[in-house]
Every structure is written in structure tokens, then in C-alpha cells.
Amino acid sequence: MSGVGEPWPGGKSEPILPSGKNKEVHFFLFPAMFECLCWVLGGFDALDYVTERQWATASDGTQIPISIVYRKNLVKLDGSDPLLLYGYGSYEICIDPDFKASRLSLLDRGFVYAIAHIRGGGEMGRQWYENGKLLKKKNTFTDFIACTEYLMEKKYCSKDKLCIEGRSAGGLLIGAVLNMRPELFKAAVAGVPFVDVLTTMLDPTIPLTTAEWEVLSFPF
């Protein structure tokens, strides 16, 4: 295909499963074109997998979207399946449920993979972000807990089979929910976590600190 690999104007979409049985693709909106990112090896067939969108109810009644994917012939949905729940919830960043070949190994071993689109991100618009920062930052954490409880209630997993993951600002999320509700989680992955918040926020010489004041508050 001509133009593959060249910069494109406009947006792009990354489907959670590739179109076809052996490619991971970008679909560019303007102009409408496909770009093959990589070949997906190992006999991959998109029809073996199920993707879902569920909604958890937060403590204030807000509906929180959850993206879910699993291999349908390996998952029982009776509470016995292992589940990895990912969250971020900062800087108005949208965590798109895009396809990643690296997740197939997990799915092909019977894991459920889920993304909690919590407040502080931008998935549901500007107000979604505004309601997850400064004095409302706690919503980010309670939203994630609500998603966790929903997944257990609906038998996607149990607390003995639930692992949570977040990186950077998502590591702050992981640290917070582990302290708030430690009994809910079997394991946690906090990658480069932002957890020494007070010390960092008090030192404006640290890169990115002053920008954080608009998200987490000015500490002086």
C-alpha cells in the first residue's frame, strides 16, 4: 500500500482486535487508509476472542466504562478466572482499548483483561477529567474500586484471582487503592509509580513538578 509508514494528517483508530486473522493495524481517519503495524503470529483468529463494554456504578452514581477482552473457549465467567485490571486516570489521557499482540499470551492462558476508564482521564470528555483532579482526585481511586467490585459481582473474577496494574500516574492510582481497599486485590503491578507525592510536589526543581500543581494542587 502506498504511503505506509509516512506521517498522516488527522486521527487514527487502533481496534482492540485486528481486521483479518494475522495483522495488527492502524486505521487512519483522514484519509481512510490502513497501515499494517506487524504480523500476528501463532495462528491468531479474532473470532476466538470476545470484547465487551460494561459499566460500573461509582459511589456518587456516575457510570464508569470498563473495556473487557477474553478468549471465549478458556474463560468460564464463574468467578474462577484470573483477571488483570489496568487503570490510569490522569491528565485527560484516553486509555483506548486498542489491540496489542503482546496481550495474546495472557489471553491465551485464560486471563480476562480489562481497562477501567476512570475519571481523571479524558474518555468521556473534558468534565470527566475535571472531576478527577485537584479536590476531586479521590474520584479516580473510588471509580477504580467500583470497577473492581463490579467485575467481582458479575463473576469475571474473584479477589483471589485479581491483579491490578498502573504505571507512572497510574502507579499513584495503584498505591492509593491498595491502601484504601487492600483486601480486594491478590497482586499489583505499579510501574515507575508516582507515590512520593508530597516530597515531589514541594520541590519545584524536579522536572514536571510545577505542571503537577494544576492536577494535584499547589502544596504551599
From TrEMBL:
The keyword Amino-acid biosynthesis does not apply. This is Prolyl endopeptidase. Gene3D superfamilies: alpha/beta hydrolase (3.40.50.1820). Residues 98-214 form the Peptidase S9 prolyl oligopeptidase catalytic domain. Serine peptidase whose precise substrate specificity remains unclear. Does not cleave peptides after a arginine or lysine residue. Regulates trans-Golgi network morphology and sorting by regulating the membrane binding of the AP-1 complex. May play a role in the regulation of synaptic vesicle exocytosis. InterPro entries: AB_hydrolase_fold, Peptidase_S9_cat, Peptidase_S9A, Serine_Peptidase_S9A. The lineage of its organism: Eukaryota, Viridiplantae, Streptophyta, Embryophyta, Tracheophyta. It comes from Ilex paraguariensis. One of its GO terms (biological process) is proteolysis. One of its GO terms (molecular function) is serine-type endopeptidase activity.
